Amino acid sequence: MLTDTFGLSHLWAQSDIVIKLVAFTLVVMSVASWYLIAVRTTRQLRARRFDSAVEGFWSAASLDEGLRRVSQVAPDSPFEALARQGAAAAEHLRRHTAADTLGGKLDADEFVTRALRKSIALSTAQLESGLTVLASIGSTAPFVGLFGTVWGIYHALIGISTSGAATLDKVAGPVGEALIMTAFGLFVAIPAVLAYNTFTRANRLELSELDAFAHDLLAWFTTGTRLASAPAEQAPRAVTPAAAAKLAGAA
């Protein structure tokens, strides 16, 4: 039977150096992809504790206590780095500048803002590490497998023309073996693409939370209070066309 004669072992035995290099490349790409998926998944599971770390920071009685809580709940996290960077910038300003004047306060705002932006930039680079590799694997693996298929079919057709036998059993086996390379390329690419999309969305949500935390830190370090969102009943209401007409008439 063809299934007994042809298969992966037969493809590997009769393949040349090009097919073996293609297969080896796909194996390396698959191992790298699943390694990054495992590392990023572990980090995402740890990231679930970041919300409680932020709440613990704001519920602390002092800055030192808040930093200690963040370090305990989310050590080596972007939120801990952001809080410590902002605290270090505020402490530097307190020691080396006098903020009794309006100009001094404006300089303090700018200095703390730059420190927080630098921390967010470094955290963004760390969050995006490995995603380029996943994107590259997801976009190139199908073409690598397709190249192996085209090369395999080319050699299969050469072998058929040399033997002079163009029957169905002589054509279907070698061509079917060559198509395995395309399937292997898709097997490598699909998990990488799905993982890239998932991690990109998770990073976008985490960076939005980090940006909100940075705004709260900036307000606290410069004014001594945390920004609070207005209640829904106190939110400004939209001006209706009738009210706008009355206002225009009154003017």
Automatic annotation (TrEMBL):
One of its GO terms (cellular component) is plasma membrane. GO terms for biological process: protein import. Residues 106-210 form the MotA/TolQ/ExbB proton channel domain. Involved in the TonB-dependent energy-dependent transport of various receptor-bound substrates. Protects ExbD from proteolytic degradation and functionally stabilizes TonB. This is Biopolymer transport protein ExbB. Pfam families: MotA_ExbB (PF01618). Belongs to the exbB/tolQ family. The chain crosses the membrane at residues 17-39, 131-158, 178-199. It comes from the Bacteria. Signal peptide: none annotated. It is found in: Cell inner membrane; Membrane. Keywords: Cell inner membrane, Cell membrane, Membrane, Protein transport, Transmembrane, Transmembrane helix, Transport. It is a multi-pass membrane protein. Its main location: membrane. The accessory proteins ExbB and ExbD seem to form a complex with TonB. The lineage of its organism: Bacteria, Pseudomonadati, Pseudomonadota, Betaproteobacteria, Rhodocyclales.
